[in-house]
Amino acid sequence: MTQDKFVIVGGGAAGLVAAHTLEAAGHAPLLLEREAEVGGRLRTDEVDGFRLDRGFQVLLSEYPEVKRYLDLDALQVSAFRPGGHVHMRQQHFRFADPLREPAQLFRSALSPVGTLNDKIRLAQLGLKLMRSTPEECFRGYTQQTTIDFIWKYGFSEQIVERFFRPFFGGVFLEQRLETPAAMFRFVLKMFAQGSAVLPAEGIQAVARQLAGKLQRTEIRTGHAVRSITDREVILDDDRRIPTRAVIVACAPDPFFPQLAGSGTEYKSTTNLYFYSTRRLKENRLINLVVDPTSTINTFCVLDEVAPTYKLRNQGGSLISVSLKECPDTDSVAQAEQDLLRHTRLPNDALSFLKQYDIPHALPRLGAVAFSADATQTRLIDRVFLAGDQQLNGSLDAAMRSGRLAAEGALRT
Ligand SMILES: Cc1cc2nc3c(=O)[nH]c(=O)nc-3n(C[C@H](O)[C@H](O)[C@H](O)COP(=O)(O)OP(=O)(O)OC[C@H]3O[C@@H](n4cnc5c(N)ncnc54)[C@H](O)[C@@H]3O)c2cc1C
């Protein structure tokens, strides 16, 4: 019997957390996912003996909803080192986070990533944000852009170009840093307090863990929803499912004519994977490329951080490369040349594994929020909205939005 059921449309992080919330209230929801597996933007493929995430993505251990719903020990996560390795045209140097690695303070103070003043300001800002709540990171900063905030805070052009732009450009998937400053402050707090980690079995393990812990939710994959009313959902194959309430945990505009034209725009990204026969030592750091002639924004050696990204016991290194912009057809050859230059690997060391072009990676949101009242998730009578686009572009937001929409639906 599907009558009177809560129906969730979309099996990404938002939909899965919505299911947890409904189960916790004693319900047995039905979750409909159009793909063959749940996960949404959290997907991992196994290719040629490697685990390849669909796009470079890290899990921030300090996210409030991650702490609430995920068992990081069971995910066997391993962490990147804080800071970054900056590659310029002629030089390269380590940039340590003074809050996370105080022993590196002296080295960091001398590194040419920014001025001494920049490093003092960054430490002060980090400490201030660590003492602030996530709500306080957002309050008053949702209209200002990240780049405006950074300039007004008194940082120099040197640290903007050598650290903030490549690092947060990679996080926000836009190099102009026009993302609201609220996100910059929140993400900086998360990095200062916690770690950027990878689950041993790839980023999709997050979704698999969420799905695996559900006990009374019926998950139907390969079921695309075509239309939604406040009484039923209609599947692509014309089947109708009566509903008690619906949680739309994906982009809602295709279902509701009243939302036409107000659909969310998305930022895209391109991620390439290479295998190097030579082992590359980058000390578990994210590499930031500060070189206008390079196509690469960041790269990292994944198996240094999570050795299980290599499925076979083989030597060499698995390298994930994120490009600055969506590339043209020669992108692989150009990126390979750039990577050889930045890593100083011999010409024959690299082989290309796979390219992921992800057109809908993060929502491009003018207005962001940390949270909302559950009642605000209601679109029409018995239809509730979830998904990262409802709050801000992050896994934390996706999970929180799922919980809030379910709490809203439970009041019907
Ligand atoms: C490359 C990349 C890097 C990222 N990096 C980070 C990061 O470092 N930190 C961070 O916090 N976040 C990051 N994110 C964002 C994070 O992954 C997302 O915010 C989160 O996964 C979104 O979850 P969601 O449930 O809102 O949406 P989605 O994951 O998009 O889930 C929506 C689901 O709905 C399904 N669906 C859609 N239409 C229908 C339909 N008609 N019928 C049935 N099902 C349907 C889809 O198939 C999908 O499974 C990154 C994302 C990408 C792609």
Automatic annotation (TrEMBL):
Q: What is this protein called?
A: Flavin-dependent amine oxidoreductase
Q: Name one GO molecular function term.
A: oxidoreductase activity
| InterPro entries cross-referenced by the UniProt entry | Amino_oxidase (IPR002937), FAD/NAD-bd_sf (IPR036188)
Pfam family example for this protein? Amino_oxidase
Amine oxidase domain residues: 14-407
**SUPFAM superfamilies associated with the record:** FAD/NAD(P)-binding domain
Q: Superkingdom of the source?
A: Bacteria
